[in-house]
Request: fold
Amino acid sequence: MSDRKISFLAFFLMWAKYQGWEVPLLHVRICVWMESCLSPERVLLVFRGAAKSTIYAVYKAWRLYSNRQLRSLVWSADGPTAEMLTADVINVLRNHPLCGGMLPTKPGRKRFWVTGARDARNASMRATGVESNVTAARADSVDFDDVEVPGNIETIEARKKLRDRISESTHLAVPGSQKTYIGTPHHHESIYPERIAAGADVLKIPLFEYVVRYKETTKHTRYRFNFKPTEDGIYVLLGINAPARLLEEGGDYQIEGNEIVFASPPGMTLDICSGCAWPERFTRADIAQRRKETLTLNAWDSQYQLEAKPITDVRLDPERMIAYGLKPIVKAVNRQVVMLLGQVQIVGSVCRWDCALGKAKSDASAFTLILTDHRGRLYWQFAIGLTGELDDQCKQVRKLVLDYHIPSVTVETNGPGGFVPPILRKHLAGLGCSVIEDHVSTNKNTDILDGFDAPLSNRFLWAHVSVFDSPAYAQMRDFNPVKKDQPDDFIDVTARAIKQTPVRIGNFVGIPTDQRRDNWRPNSGVHDVIVEHS
Reply:
């Protein structure tokens, strides 16, 4: 960087003049940040369509103009995507007024050397897909341009693989090098907020600086916004995809102080926005069209507002569960033995085990417990992965049965589960806990949807805080009902447990003694589950 001959902004403005571009303040801001940010790791997050990759290509040409010894490695989701950036850089070097004679006659898009480069092994720029082998490469600059795409981040395994490949850059970058991430997020566990949390410098420019969202709009006609509108005014966006509309003041709504006022409830998701980052290009008509062509709110939020969300809708949203941190206890109340979860009396439970042998790359041995109260509310107490040989797993089940006063365990007898019931009965002998065998033949994805949809949509599924920290949380969030092979062991067994409620509990749980406790289950018969709509 010390050999530079002109600032990047000046270099970019010369190129823009050559190209006949009008340069908005948005691009000036990006140019200034690119030159001034010298952090070893940095993240550039700018909404889709803002020309961030185009600007970055000019920046890379300026870096080579300033220092012909620079060696850059461009990593993208695949080789052709990476080569789009090197092709742009080649075009700038070939045509920029200051870069005459810097290129050989036929530079390659996969790699090329500028004239004056002295490292014959490592190119001035090398483009490769993130899964390609670059073990022997060395670079002063590593550029991750659109390295995260839906195809390489939609599953836990894919996200781990992507991070493993990215971590390889640590061994390729020479001391004093710089890594730059350019793109938009495509998942809750996007690499971009992860790198920012790890200390990377960041420039984040969403389409709108201010946004207030209302999801429930079927009852009220007044909606408050808590910001001062910028010069471009207020944008009121209703819905997403085909029904989406950019509403007009005076006809569709009125502004009264800091409230949007409708004649009747709008009935769809409502976004109140202001502070468009590029109003000259992203006109109201263009924004309205983009909103209509965007399939989901998640896609809009990730690609235009740069929020870490998948571009598809979350089918089983774990955030719709209500968290609690209590463990059930059994105690005497009014001369009756009852099970309490805080102040709530538990009247039923379903415990279910989908066995596995615990080998590497095999299914998890998933053990789950669902409790119910007299109003039909469900409490997901735990989702635990058992480990070891089947005998060791049965010992773990025995401990959980005692700890949680579990009256029966349903064992799925598919696969290795067929060997479990007699072993488990031996371990539970004398506890009063029965073992129920269940051979599953129904469609797994259908059962998962059937089990979770109603409790989530009507918000009568509570979950212990440990569930939010377990693999079950990610499995819910990543669940795709059209995929056959995906991590789903914990949500599969839990969905089947939910479908199995309510269950009669009639036996004492534990080792009988002279001070035997009475059954905590109320003796008024089987309770019907009542679904309460919130």
